[in-house]
Write a structure and sequence with these properties.
387 residues, Rossmann fold, 59% helix
């Protein structure tokens, strides 16, 4: 099976990277290959999946379709010639970039290349970006950099000028549904509904198709917004949405946090339930701080998912108000959409969508989530429609 088979809806980008992998075979060809790449595209379009597929092809000796052994090592992030920088915190720190840049200067140990991947490269501040810039200006001949970001504009101009950009498009609902059905043995109608409600975000579509909690969270989000009739309702709804985001973040991080702590204790020689010696507590404190930063990002991500769902709701309402009802996302609550479309005007719906967009920016700028949500949801007050 080819490493490219697990990707979907990106035929042009796949062709570009596969051709580059084919050209990389052999010493002479490798000298002319691009050594710095930037993969851009909307969230859920498969940026990191494509990056790791390309890495697998480059690390598989003479096989641009990737061999099975290399594929397993790349999936486990254990290949000796693969360097990865990903963060579950709000930013990528300058120390993390420095460590990866230092690693990029080593010669390949088993493959023809060293491949360095930075997921969410848009999370680097300018100081960290400048450290990376020096590595991109004069990369070692056998090192390939692959950066991932939502858009070129998310990186500083000097980095953009030194990379080859490949733009991904939003995959179709059908492509995402087919991929999920194949990967997870989910029936196609369920996969299609999940792909549509996730707006073709591959990771979120998979979660909606396979996780009851995620589906219930989304349903409650929409019903909470549809039930706002007064300012007090808006305040209560803000608290409800914040709780939903928090529960979602905990569901994602708690199990991983526990596994990391147990692994750290084992590596320190501490028995389960045993007392941590004072001299080792500093190492655990560092882990706990990293987990707190990850929790902060997870909460923000959860809030952002909620607002994306709300935007899909009011998009559907606006379409119905404009007489378009064949491109709806939330068809499962069609009767609610009809009632909501009759309870307001297109101007009111647009104002609510603008408020949601503003709130996303405010939360990204560290405005208190509760206050930002309350201000947003006041714009969603509607009188109950009476036939």
């Amino acid at each position: 099976m080819s490493v490219w088979d697990e990707l979907t809806g990106q035929s042009e980008a796949i062709a570009t990277f596969r051709a580059a992998a084919e050209q990389s075979v052999g010493g002479e060809a490798s000298r002319s290959m691009t050594h710095s790449w930037l993969i851009t595209g909307p969230p859920g379009s498969g940026r990191s999946n494509l990056a790791y597929a390309f890495a697998t092809a480059l690390l598989s000796a003479g096989n641009p379709d990737g061999d099975e052994s290399t594929r397993r090592q790349v999936e486990a992030r254990s290949h000796p010639d693969l360097g990865v920088l990903s963060t579950e915190r709000v930013i990528i720190t300058i120390d993390e970039v420095r460590a990866l840049v230092k690693s990029s200067n080593y010669s390949p140990s088993v493959a023809s290349y060293r491949v360095m991947i930075i997921e969410d490269a848009d999370r680097m501040r300018e100081t960290a970006s400048n450290v990376l810039l020096k590595a991109l200006e004069e990369p070692p001949p056998r090192t390939v950099w692959i950066l991932c970001a939502p858009s070129e504009a998310d990186l500083i101009p000097t980095i953009r000028s030194r990379v080859r950009s490949v733009r991904l498009r939003v995959p179709s609902v059908g492509d995402v549904a087919e991929l999920i059905a194949r990967r997870s043995s989910i029936d196609l109608p369920t996969a299609t509904q999940a792909a549509r409600e996730a707006q073709s975000h591959i990771g979120m579509a998979h979660r909606l198709a396979t996780n009851d909690h995620a589906r219930r969270r989304r349903e409650k989000t929409l019903q909470t917004a549809l039930g706002i009739r007064s300012v007090s309702d808006a305040v209560i709804a803000a608290a409800t949405l914040l709780e939903l985001a928090g529960d979602d973040a905990k569901a994602i991080t708690e199990e991983r946090d526990a596994e990391e702590r147990a692994s750290a204790l084992r590596s320190l020689g501490v028995e389960p339930g045993g007392t941590v010696p004072p001299g080792l507590r500093g190492q655990l404190k560092g882990l706990e701080e990293d987990q707190k930063r990850r929790a902060t990002r997870s909460l923000r991500d959860g809030l952002d998912r909620i607002m994306v769902d709300l935007l899909s709701l009011y998009r559907d309402i606006l379409l119905m108000q404009l007489g378009v009802d064949d491109e709806l996302i939330n068809v499962a609550i069609l009767s609610d959409l009809i009632a909501a479309s009759r309870a307001s005007t297109p101007e009111q719906t647009l104002a609510t969508m603008d408020a949601i967009t503003t709130t996303r920016r405010r939360i990204e700028g560290n405005v208190g989530p509760a206050l930002a949500l309350e201000a947003m949801l006041i714009s969603a007050i509607r009188k109950a429609h009476r036939p």
